[in-house]
Amino acid sequence: MPGIEKLPLEEALEDSPQTRSLLGVFEEDTAAMANYCTQLYEAMQRIYDAQNELSAATHLTSRLLKEYDKQRFPLGGDDEVMSSTLQQFAKVIDELSSCHAVLSTQLADAMMFPITQFKERDLKEILTLKEVFQIASDDHDTAINRYSRLSKRKDNEKVRSELVEDLYTSRKKQHQTMMHYFCALNTLQYKKKTALLEPLLGYMQAQISFFKLGSENLTQQWEDFLGTIGTSVQNVRREMEEEVGQMQQTIQQMERSCDPLYTPCDPDPAHSPVVRSLTRKQGYLYIRNKTGLVSSSWERQYFFTQGGNLMQQGRGEVAGGLVTDLDNCSVMAVDSDDRRFCFQVTSFDGKKVVTLQAESRRECEEWIATINNISRRIYLSENAEELAARVNQTALEAVTPSPSFQQRHESMRPCSKGRTGRASSISSVGSEPSPALSVLSLDALVAPETPIQFDIISPVSEELSGQNKTAAQPGRRSNPFGESGENSPEESGDSILHQLFIVRFLGSMEVRSAESTDVIPETMRQILAARAIHNIFRMTESHLLVTCDCLKLIDPQTQVTRLRFPLSSVVQCSSHQDNKRLFGFVLQAAGERGDSRAVCYIFESNNDGEKIYDSIGLAKQIAFHSEMDRKAVEKKKEQDKAKEKQKEELSKQRQIEKDLEEQSRLIAASSRPANPPASDGQFLVLSSSQSEESDPGEEGKKRGESEA
User: Which biological process annotations from GO are given for this protein (predicted)?
Assistant: First the structure.
């Protein structure tokens, strides 16, 4: 090791400028050493802290690996291989944790302790001695100045002795302090070498000991185990790369195929037709929530069907909530003032109505078809989608659109080639054709060239409205639904039966055979198929009032009668064989040229159609019995009138007989001999009176004979 510079202790008493200059160099070196030692101490402290953190983290890792068996992962099952592998890793890491703990202890003793002693003890001692030396030097300068100012003329022994004593004391103190300060600085030149080497030596020895301990613990068995695990990791990584490649290809294919679906407008129907055979569907819809009497808000929620229920679930929610029960419900497209593609779901009892909005028309139609399939309980069958597809396909192939009735009629001619194909599509939706229907042709039931009317306005209502307008008095206001504002005498009276049903008008069409039992199922098939072909889902909801006199369709909002069907004109009424919510009736009405025509009306109800059928049958029975009672009362009245007339005739006959008797008596009296004359002229008077009475008697006799 090269020589070390030292401060000469012999020159401390002289305190020359050269000595002070050399002292300044040593002080600068000490300050630089203190700064460097502080940085080195901070770096070694970080190593020590990191080692302690590594030891704690290793121990925590080992504990977490041991607790893997206690974890319950939602996507991970009981993997025994993974569990045993992690247990072996936990054992190895636990041993490494012990080694790291030993290393931390060695670093604290061999590295941190020497540099801490040098920093806290030796460097602080130098700084303290420097301050003391500075104070002693200042005191010496003050004492020498005071001693130099002693007056030569005024020699005061006491003052002089005090100054001499003060100068002696300060010079001695400065000399001693300087020597100790020089000694500490010279010693620091040796200590700074040991203070830098001892921590590094302790750090290296601790690391070597740690590596030796690790090599003893990690034997060949652990090396084989680590090699096996490394091979497994490589295999998993290879599988991951293959899976990532497949996912990338899938993403590219889906990006190309789903590109038309990104736009909110309806795609091309040829490439993506509406699927009407769904029994389950899910997606985002907007639901209308009422916020006040007239105000409402729309909220976007995720909706899905679960069995026969419609569920909704918001983002962040764990499970969905029930919206409404879809069994026997009704769904139809509705018009909204501020939204498009809206449809409305009404529960079977009509108490709950939900208005939803889809993103496109195709989504709206698919939701309506799916809810209709669920409402028919098709989802309960084994092959739900096949059954739904068959039902919808039958509905689509059932009839042609209403403007093509002439083409259909021409295709029914014997020379037509498509006679067999047309006859094969006569079977009704969801039911087998009856024997009567197999004998009758389509034209025998449904009048050709008759369009299907999907609106509530029907030919009967137009005739009734025309009659009401004609019969209305001038200046009297009539409503647009065919009512004149005054009730008829039959309607003004109290009816025995009043039953109200919630119905939706599906359509009506003119039929030929009003008495056939197959005309209503055939009309149902025609109207449902035409709605499916033309994508007509909107239905007018009304209240059907069944009374003993008539059937009324009442507007639920304004309570105005839209249509009135006299009960005597209702020929027959029946419900669908499979879907009991569908029912219809045939009305025999008078035509424009005096002939009669039959019109079949089809409705959908929230309740069972059999109830409406029973209600109409009960009304007809009550009306029949009422008519019988009325006829009996009229017959009794006629009999009473005949008896009274007979009594009057008998009384007249008796009066005539009395008159005849009176007349005969008068005639007999007139045929007697004349009385003798009197003196006072009584004979003349009597003769004149008798003659006067005889003439009226003859006239009365003739009159009585003529009346008799």
Answer: cellular response to growth factor stimulus; positive regulation of biosynthetic process; positive regulation of transport; signaling
